[in-house]
TrEMBL record:
The Thioredoxin domain, residue ranges: 581-711, 934-1061
Catalytic activity: Catalyzes the rearrangement of -S-S- bonds in proteins
Protein name as catalogued: Protein disulfide-isomerase
Keywords: Disulfide bond, Endoplasmic reticulum, Isomerase, Membrane, Redox-active center, Repeat, Signal, Transmembrane, Transmembrane helix
Any GO MF annotation of the entry: protein kinase activity
Domain Protein kinase: 197-559
Length: 1090
């Protein structure tokens, strides 16, 4: 889009190219060489000193930290979203007419060329001129596309590349007065106030904006007043470019809709994703943020640089960045070509020099692009030659225009690595497998035909009978044919995968332009190995016999197909202008009866049998094994998550492997490991007994659970490293436990076993370390252990020693108890919930919730008085806004400070004022069972609904615990399907009770939404139907009856009649209750059957 130009070689073009007026190479005799030797040695020394000085200055500059640019909001808002419809329509009409007028000469020239001038150089020259002129006049969208195409000399004739390359520097510029006005508007100061020097004439103009060279005033230096970073490039957006660019895209989308309706063409990505990418291209704040992230990723790498930016000089339309030395790569190549033409006597030297520079550049750029992709998962999305500066003086490149950057979804990154490895090494089965995993289309894919088509492409480009067996792989053409194959099969790739593949194609084109012999596929494998943990091997696959013959017989036809593929792809690219460019063609649906191949993933999840199980465990240090049944719905749901976790761990090079056993077939294994339900997961480590997997069932959770167990829970350190270990742990907010024990002693084993129980401990961060005692030490007398605590108050010691029994249970309990200070900070259910505090022998937890600093001070002062005296309770204070689930603590909205006590399964709220006496009284009343629990309650919209009484947390005790009433309650959740099905039956029951006069006798049919209300009942499933009989209040809960029959009217009515205390002496009418129902129901059933 935009680039900087330097003053390196200012005389090069004026004096005839790179070397000026060269007179060739003169021969130097031996005597002159001897006379010049001292001078040469001195020159070498001076050059070394200069290089060292330059390196030192670069290191200083590289270490400068500028104010960070915050990441722009990802929310996309169309530039003219707020326009009225008639204004949009008028602008669209004007823009359509303008584009039609702009491209009319080119379309006419194309028609004339095809009809009359196929062999005429003059007609072709006219056609090329019209191509350039029309594309430049059309605006940013079309100029950007032309820039991308100019980097693909392997796909277009040289004269087209030459013409399109002019778009990189010859885009029309706006007047200097417009630049001054924009600087004043966006930076708030006039040019003279900001800059000592400002070049009115732009040094470069691109499709979106232009660049001026300037020098900031000392007080406005990028690195602060008086700083060194004053030489800058000022990028200013062209006026009106956003409106015109997005309107162009709207027009293009209309063309796409027409194609979908009449030509059956489709595009494989969402328009919102597409617009978001263009927004990033137009927003300089996005470019500034990306620049800082790239600079951070490549910090310390001398040969790769990015301009520095400061948030003080960044707006959506103006960007001030450091001036970087260097020359545009395309200009360097042009200089070489010009020098070659004018200096025939130096042709050999120039070619060698050019090859050297091209070789260096291709390696540097490929190294950079692969690190961006497989190491950082953050890739420059517009990496063409016009966006890269190369400094020959110190052999480094500077990357510009970082407005577009792509990255893969976190869950896609590892599988994409497997796919990329397979694609580069010719593993057709794996390529097809992962293409289907990345497919988001709803059409049925003919897997066998897809595999055959992909195999044909692999054979063509990688097989032994390819067109150029000794040459490098043309990855871009191969990618193009793979994408075309996907179009024919109606497949739609995930947006991030499509974007990444297109970015790879652009980078490969740049590298191949510099070094045509560079094999990007083969060179990619070491990077995948190093950064993604893949086992590397590179092999060109042997072709299937029939495909070999086909390739040899139809080579010419395939070349024509390849050209057609490229042109068809580029026609769509020119319309859509996106970095998500994977195009789809909707073909007829595959035969639905065709069986899709559903293969396992042998590279990630192993399938075990009885005969291989034990040998497998011996060959792997750690393994997670799933015992499943093919018919089990839970197993089927787990399978994709399990496979994805296996992929991720394999890509990371983890020691843990995942396997599965079909327990319905391998019954001996299922019996041996006591498999009672499906799926059952067992974790095996170092030949020990398996433990039951109790972790998450999602891919990320499974992988993280296994990662934790690969890391040693206890670090082994030297005695001299203890202080540093403790300091580092406390600095990270962790509790630090250090044991001095003798290796292999019973106390060491107990310590390690206790530490292992904290692998999944969520309440606090705890770090463990062991210091080995000398061989002469007594394993009992000399063993000691201490715990250091972070951020403790004056009420607690910073460190305390262990004095209990050296058993794993005692150590584990001591460690947990040590994580409770007198007054804690923050709240986690895992730490202060009823079960957690019970495990450390406490009565419960006292939680102070505060809204602001003043309330925090009040809570802290109260706890400081009470906590030291109430040692049976655990105290903690927490900021209200940090609570993830305020309902757990019964937080009320009208108070700034609140005390909640958690005891057993209930919570109690202090309502009598925050005083020492009131809090002590509440704690005493809780233990004496005199305090009233607090329950969450929603406001009932009405007393009854379809005859059913509505209960809330506030009314439950009043109604359900009334000693004179039999209350039959349905505890339900609105989203529960069973509850929804029961609703009309429950309403019918309530109306029948009312109609029979039972309500007047004290029988109530009620319901409570337990997602919005709480009560004394502990509900674990929906719906729960419980009858609270008319007995004394204190006996209500003990004598309650839980209904477990069919959820139909008759059995429910029988249950009410038989068990309601208030109906014991009532005579039932016909067809009411059990007396009539047994016979009558049987008669009704027989009548229905007849």
């Amino acid at each position: 889009m935009l680039r900087q130009c330097s003053r390196v070689w200012p005389w090069s073009r004026a004096r005839g190219g790179l070397f000026g007026r060269s007179r060739g190479f003169a021969l130097v005799n031996q005597s002159r060489i001897h006379r010049l030797r001292p001078l040469a040695i001195g020159a070498v020394g001076a050059a070394t000193a200069t290089a060292y000085t330059a390196y030192t200055l670069w290191r200083r500059e590289d270490e400068i930290e500028l104010p960070a640019v915050p990441e722009p909001t990802p929310t996309f808002k169309h530039p003219y979203e707020t326009w009225p419809w008639y204004q949009k329509a008028w602008f669209a009409f004007k823009r359509s007419v303008f584009l039609a007028w702009v491209f009319a000469p080119f379309m006419c020239a194309s028609t004339l060329l095809m009809l009359f001038g196929k062999e005429s150089e003059n007609w072709r020259e006219i056609w090329l001129q019209q191509m350039l002129a029309c594309t430049q006049r059309a605006g940013a969208a079309f100029q950007k596309f032309g820039q991308w195409l100019s980097m693909r000399p392997d796909m277009f004739p040289p004269d087209v590349i030459v013409v399109l390359s002019k778009l990189r520097a010859d885009a029309p510029a706006h007047p200097g007065v417009v630049s001054r006005r924009k600087l004043k508007e966006h930076l708030g100061k006039d040019v003279e106030e900001l800059f000592d020097e400002f070049q009115e004439e732009p040094i470069a103009s691109g499709s979106v904006g232009q660049v001026h060279r300037a020098r900031l005033r000392a007080e406005h230096a990028l690195d602060g007043p008086g700083g060194n970073l004053r030489d800058v490039a000022v990028k200013i957006q062209h006026p009106g470019v956003i409106d015109s660019a997005f309107m162009d895209l709207n027009i293009v989308w209309k063309v796409v809709e027409f194609s979908e309706n009449f030509l059956h063409m489709t595009v494989p990505f969402d328009r919102s994703d597409f617009d978001a990418v263009i927004q990033a291209q137009m927003d300089f704040t996005r470019e500034a943020f990306n620049l800082q992230r790239f600079a951070k990723n490549f910090k310390g790498e001398r040969r790769i640089r990015f301009p520095k930016v400061s948030s003080r000089f960044v707006t959506p339309e103006v960007l001030v960045e450091t001036w970087e030395s260097g020359e545009i790569i395309s200009n360097i190549m042009e200089d070489f070509d010009n020098a070659k033409a004018k200096c025939q006597e130096a042709v050999t030297a120039l070619e060698e020099k050019k090859r050297t520079v091209q070789g260096k550049l291709s390696k540097i750029l490929y190294d950079m692009s692969m690190k961006m992709m497989v190491r950082d998962n953050f890739v420059h999305g517009d990496l063409h030659g016009g966006n890269i500066l190369y400094s020959m003086s110190d052999d480094h490149v500077t990357v510009l225009d970082c407005g577009i950057a792509t990255s893969l979804d976190k869950r896609t990154f590892a599988p994409f690595g497997v796919f990329l490895h397979a694609l580069c090494s010719g593993q057709t089965d794996t390529v097809v497998e992962y293409l289907q995993r990345f497919n988001e289309a709803n059409l049925v894919v003919n897997t066998k035909q897809l595999k055959s088509d992909i195999q044909a492409t692999m054979d063509k480009y990688m097989g032994p009978f390819r067109m150029n067996p000794q040459g490098p792989l043309n990855a871009a053409d191969m990618f193009g044919e793979v994408m075309f194959t996907l179009q024919r099969h109606g497949m739609l790739l995930k947006g991030d995968v499509a974007s990444t593949l297109f970015t790879i194609s652009i980078s490969e084109g740049l590298v191949r332009q510099l070094d045509p012999s560079f094999d990007v596929a083969e060179q990619a494998l070491p990077y995948i190995t190093k950064y993604m943990g893949m086992k590397t091997y590179f092999s060109r696959p042997e072709s299937l016999p029939e495909l070999r013959r086909k390739i040899c017989r139809e080579a010419h036809e395939m070349l024509l197909v390849s050209a057609a593929v490229r042109w068809s792809l580029l026609v769509f690219l020119s319309l859509l202008l996106s970095s998500l460019l994977d195009l789809g063609y909707s073909s007829d649906e595959a035969d639905p009866d065709e069986d899709d191949e559903d293969e396992d993933f042998p590279e990630s999840v192993y399938t075990l049998k009885d005969g291989t199980f034990d040998d497998f465990l011996k060959g792997h240090e750690r393994a997670l094994v799933e015992f499943y049944a093919p018919w089990c719905g839970h197993c089927q749901k787990l399978e994709p998550e399990y496979n994805q976790a296996a992929d991720a761990l394999r890509m990371e090079g983890a020691k843990t492997v995942l396997a599965k056993v079909d327990a319905t077939v391998e019954k001996a294994l299922a019996e041996r490991f006591e498999v009672k339900s499906f799926p059952t997961l067992k974790y095996f480590a170092s030949g020990g007994d398996p433990i039951e997997y109790d972790g998450p069932r999602q891919a990320d959770g499974i992988a993280e659970w296994l990662r934790k167990r690969e890391k040693p829970v206890v670090e082994e350190i030297a005695n001299s490293e203890v202080d540093a270990f403790i300091e580092k742990g406390l600095g990270s907010g962790a509790y630090v436990v250090v044991a001095h024990v003798k290796k292999k002693s019973a106390r060491a084993k107990a310590f390690f076993k206790a530490a292992q129980t904290f692998v999944d401990y969520k309440a606090d961060k705890i770090r463990f370390a062991a210091v080995w005692l000398e061989k002469s030490a007594d394993p009992k007398k000399d063993a000691l252990m201490a715990m250091s605590c972070p951020d403790v108050s004056d009420l607690d010691p910073k460190k305390f020693d262990f004095s209990g029994s050296w058993t794993d249970g005692a150590i584990q309990k001591w460690v947990v108890s040590g994580t409770y200070p007198t007054i804690g900070q923050g709240f986690k259910v895992e730490k202060y919930g009823a079960e957690a505090v019970r495990d450390v022998g406490a009565k419960g937890a006292v939680v102070g919730i505060y809204e602001n600093d003043e309330a925090a001070k009040t809570v802290t002062e109260l706890f400081t008085k009470v906590a030291p005296k109430e040692k049976d309770w655990r105290f903690t204070a927490v900021l209200r806004s940090s609570l993830e689930t305020p309902d757990v603590l019964g937080v009320r909205g009208e108070v700034s400070a609140q005390i909640t006590v958690l005891h057993g399964e209930k919570k109690y709220v202090l309502k009598e004022g925050l005083s020492e006496e009131a809090l002590k009284k509440l704690l005493a009343d809780i233990l004496a069972k005199k305090a009233k629990p607090h329950y969450k309650s929603a406001a009932a919209p009405q007393a009854t609904e379809d005859g059913v009484t509505i209960l809330t947390g506030d009314t439950f005790e009043q109604i359900a615990m009334d000693s004179k009433k039999d209350v039959f309650v349905e505890f339900y959740a609105p989203w529960c399907g069973h509850c929804q099905k029961l609703a009309p039956v429950w309403s019918e029951l309530a109306k029948k009770v009312e109609k029979q006069g039972f309500a007047k006798k004290g029988v109530v049919v009620a319901k409570m939404d337990v997602t919005e209300n709480e009560c004394e009942e502990q509900i674990t499933g929906y719906p729960s139907l419980i009858l609270h009989p008319a007995v004394k209040k204190e006996k209500k809960m003990r004598q309650k009856l839980i209904y477990g029959g069919q959820r139909e009217f008759d059995p429910l009515m029988d249950f009410v009649v038989e068990n309601s205390v208030n109906l014991e002496d009532v005579e039932m009418a016909d067809s009411v209750g059990k007396q009539a129902s047994l016979v009558d129901r049987e008669r009704k059933k027989k009548k229905k059957e007849l």
